[in-house]
Amino acid sequence: MDERTFERLAQEYSGRLYAVAYRMLGHRADAEDAVQRALLKCFAARASYSPRWAVSTWLYRAVANVCIDELRRRKVRGEQVDDVEATVRPAAVGQRLDLTRALETVPREARVLLALHYVDGLGYRELAAIRGISVNTVKSQLTRGKAILKKALQAGGHDGSD
Amino acid sequence: MDRTDATLRELFAVQPPAGLDRRLREALREEPRALDALIDRFHVEASERGIARLLYGRGRDVAAGRGRRHAEQARQELAEYLAGRRTFFTVPVDLAGIGEFQDRVLTEANRIPFGEVTSYADLARRIGHPRAARAVGNALGANPVPVIVPCHRVIRGDGSWGHYAFGGALKTRLLALERATPLLIGCASTRIVCRRGCAHEQRIGENGRVVFASVADAAGVGYRPCKVCKPRDAAA
Questions:
Q1: How many domains does chain B have?
Q2: Domain count, chain A
Q3: Is A161 domain-assigned?
Q4: pTM for this predicted structure
Q5: Which residue of B has its CA nearest to A140?
Q6: Distance CA B159, CA A70 (A)
Q7: For B30-40, how does the pLDDT look when each residue is reduced to its tens digit (9 = 90+)?
């Protein structure tokens, strides 16, 4: 893959990669840093990119790997992140604040799958390829994550549906 | 897709910040600041028991007999560490001749997880001398094997770096390197999770690498810990 092709792909996916990273980390600056680091890693390894893989699988795995490692460090440091995007509509701020807090209660492996699933609508097979797990594990993790998320949203006053 | 799914998709949407593409494009054009080239500036002195000193700057390795093997191993592990391919050292160190207090400080410093930092005061507390932060700093300053015994992971309580034998700039670069290097890598085909730097981990293809935040997380999705490098959550 040449530089120009990679740059075009980076531009095409940057918004979605950022959204996944933000939903994983709950912090704007950390999310942008994670996307940058993931893209730099992919750029350096672009010669080893195999066309057998969907580009999205390759890029999402890279960003998930960076975000998961960032969460590991946070766990050790015992940090809590409290940052809500400033660009959302005021009426939605409450719900999104709930979501950010609720996501913090979801275990990391389920959280990464929820982020990928709901940001870009990725299917079970692609999620399994991104995280190197079985399709059945994807399904069980998503079900578990969704149940925890719904419960946390309901506790926060949002019913998780409409 | 049910109604909840539709709502969640809407809730998960995020507006990317202005200028994101431009900043990412600029980052891609920056020259990578790899630390690999620094390997030639490190020199080891090795005894038969292990690495006795690690030096930075001009010089050459000093080793004889079995010490040569230790020196070669240290050089290889250092090169991998500086390239972001290793998160732990297995080369033995020879700390013969250091005092008991310094030995305790260095042993405790060696327990600071890769990529983490702690303060001089905290380290003093951990060795049972809560008022000896300055003495801990002196003991670390006289660490004969920096990097291998990670005294660069100890900083001042106010967040500033404090003294570092190889200079503050190198301390910054080492900590940044550790921040950018994941610790636990799973192999998507064997479903085994290793510490970065394990011989098995180094054989995982670029497209088969999955990062985990803990051994428990990995076990929860069907991965088992490597029997060779024995990753443990305590080490994470």
A1: 3
A2: 1
A3: no
A4: 0.85
A5: B221
A6: 19
A7: 766 667 778 88
